[in-house]
């Protein structure tokens, strides 16, 4: 297996967070949920999952290299190593989505609004939610062993 069970749970929690926050933004903006919005949610899930997997893969690589370091140190180093990639990817995606929002016309407006929220929240969750859950999971499993 490439990743352990807790990685999958952390990624799923981050995905649920992303979709719920985007749904909340849509509700606050009183926008209608259509099939186009469902497609936007699926796009957000794919985008966020890809971003989370990049961070998790770096964590996995660093765990092999830095065997004696704590999980917190490994996660911190991994996030720092992937941070520039994450910000550049999110920034360029956001530039295109913002251009679609302002220049794309009425048909694509709600889709691009959902993607704007989703890209921002997905970037946040891949850095701050999924990794923190791994630390939480590890601390709980360590307490149970003692």
TrEMBL record:
| Entry-linked Pfam families | SecD_SecF_C (PF02355)
Its placement in the membrane is given as: Multi-pass membrane protein
Q: Which GO terms describe its molecular function?
A: protein-transporting ATPase activity
Task: Tell me where it resides.
Answer: Cell membrane
Q: Which GO terms describe its biological process?
A: intracellular protein transport
Q: What cellular component terms from Gene Ontology apply here?
A: plasma membrane
What residue ranges are annotated as transmembrane? 7-29, 35-56, 82-102, 114-137
Keywords, ordered alphabetically = Cell membrane, Membrane, Protein transport, Translocation, Transmembrane, Transmembrane helix, Transport
Protein export membrane protein SecD/SecF C-terminal domain span = 2-139
PANTHER family associated with the record:
PROTEIN TRANSLOCASE SUBUNIT SECF (PTHR30081:SF8), PROTEIN-EXPORT MEMBRANE PROTEIN SEC (PTHR30081)
Record NCBIfam families: 2A0604s01, transloc_SecF
Designated name of the protein = Protein translocase subunit SecF
State the organism of origin.
Answer: marine metagenome
